[in-house]
Design brief:
With 326 residues, this protein is an alpha/beta fold. Helix content is 31%, strand content 24%. It has nine helices and eleven strands. It has a six-stranded mixed β-sheet with strand order 3-4-2-5-6-7, with helices on both faces. A three-stranded mixed β-sheet has the order 9-10-11. Strands 1-8 form a two-stranded antiparallel ribbon. α6 (220-233) runs antiparallel to α8 (281-298). The longest helix has 18 residues, at 281-298. Residues 46-53 are annotated as: G1. Belongs to the TRAFAC class TrmE-Era-EngA-EngB-Septin-like GTPase superfamily. Era GTPase family. Residues 93-96 are annotated as: G3. It comes from Pseudosporangium ferrugineum.
Length: 326
């Protein structure tokens, strides 16, 4: 692993196959239902850092969405598939809806709204450790015209006492005529199965939409890039997460070893110095943590080669956004 040299624009794309579906034998949950097989799409929406990705990972049972305490962590719409004996739930993890300040922000919001229009059930996430605010009210008005069934999900209930939770549930109930309101904790697992049962109950009758060994349809290289970006987000200054993008340039399988070559893009030389750290120490730490997550995902040994490069103002440049997958 080595900190790389400067480059003023991203490379022109991967040289390897990007479209391979990641397969994994999904765990089957205990079935509770009315004897009807149901299958469909659902998504969790909410303002940034409402716990959407953590909840998605808890339901699917494996990390398919990166999590961080920084806002705007999720940038790709990642589909995860939960297989049960009488249902198949396809969860779509979306970026947080926010007031955009860049072209990237506008495109992320467009992704959210496009997803809303295509799913069967929408779970609007409200963090229990924060009062209902303007962002929550804005999202509630945005979903008013949609055809999907809308469920309120009060997340992070493990962080508040019962009296505060009761206040949050009452405030949420006044925002919209939700089909159901479910308090959960993705960290402790509290009522996660109950939430799944509620969502499945609102899905249409349908045969399975995916084979039973498919966990996510997101290409492996995108998942790997997201895991690298998650590692790079930890411990950096608050303004850096918006400026970091990762592109997996090449993957080579040699026996039991997978060699991965990836570039971490930032917008300025000062940001590059922060990501690399003194003597390359921070980038080395990013690589160690990312490699462990990637090996868990792939189930085999990984050699990870990271370079930090500069792509000036990439969040505002349509050409560079396309090259970086947005």
């Amino acid at each position: 692993m080595s900190p790389g040299s400067d480059a003023n624009a991203p490379a022109g794309g991967a040289r390897t196959e990007r479209g391979r579906t990641h397969r994994h034998k999904a765990a089957r949950a205990t079935r509770v239902g009315d004897g009807t097989y149901r299958a469909g799409f659902a998504c969790f929406v909410g303002r940034p850092n409402a716990g959407k990705s953590t909840l998605t990972n808890a339901i699917i049972g494996q990390k398919i969405a990166i999590t961080s305490n920084k806002p705007q962590t999720t940038r790709h719409v990642i589909r995860g598939v939960l297989h049960r004996e009488d249902a198949q739930l396809v969860l779509v993890d979306t970026p947080g809806l926010h007031r955009p300040r860049t072209l990237l922000g506008e495109r992320l919001n467009d992704l959210v709204r496009e997803t809303w229009s295509e799913v069967d059930v929408i779970g609007v996430c409200f963090p229990a450790d924060e009062p209902v605010g303007a962002g929550d009210r804005f999202i509630s008005t945005e979903i008013a015209e949609l055809k999907a069934t809308v469920v309120a999900v009060v997340t992070k209930v493990d962080l508040v006492p019962p009296a505060v939770l009761a206040e949050r549930l009452l405030a949420v109930s006044k925002l919209y005529d939700f089909a159901d309101i479910v308090p959960v904790s993705a960290v402790s697992g509290h009522q996660v199965d109950t939430l799944v049962d509620v969502i499945v109950g609102h899905l249409p009758e349908s045969p399975p939409l995916y084979p039973d060994d498919v966990l996510t349809e997101e290409p492996e290289q995108v998942l790997i890039g997201e895991l690298i970006r998650e590692a790079a987000l930890e411990g950096v200054r608050d303004e850096l997460p918006h400026s970091i993008a990762v592109l997996v340039d090449e993957m080579l399988v040699e026996g039991n070893l997978t060699k991965i070559y990836a570039n971490v893009y930032v917008e300025r030389s000062s940001q590059k110095s922060i990501v690399i750290g003194a003597g390359g120490a921070r980038l080395k730490d990013v690589g160690i943590r990312a490699r462990a997550e990637i090996e868990a995902l792939l189930g085999r040994r990984v050699y990870l080669d990271l370079h930090v490069r500069i792509a000036k103002e990439w969040q505002r440049d349509p050409k560079q956004l396309r090259r970086l997958g947005f």
